[in-house]
Amino acid sequence: MIGPILYWNVRGLGTSRGRLKKLVKEFKPKVFALAETFVDDSKMGRLMRQLGLEEGSSNQLNAGKIWLLWEKNVNVTIVRMSDQFITVKVLEGDLALSITFVYAKCYYGLRRQLWRDLQEDVHSNDPWMILGDFNVIKNNEEWKGGSPCSRIALEEFNEWINGCGLMDLNYNGNNLSWCNGQEGLERRREGGLENLAFKMKRMKQVLRRWNKEIFGHVKLKIKELEWRVESLEAILQGDYEAEVEQDLLVSKIEIDIWQKREECLTAQRAGIKWLQEGDNNTRFFHAVLKRRQQNQVTKMNKPDGTAFNTPEAIHEGAVQYFQEFLSHKAEGEPPYLSSFIDQAITEDENKNIYKRPSMEEIWQAINSIPVESSPGPDGFGSGFFKACWAIGKGNVEEAIAEFFEGKQLPRYYTASYVALIPKVQ
Question: Which are the contacts of 319, defined by CB distance < 8 A and separation ≥ 6?
Answer without folding.
Answer: 18
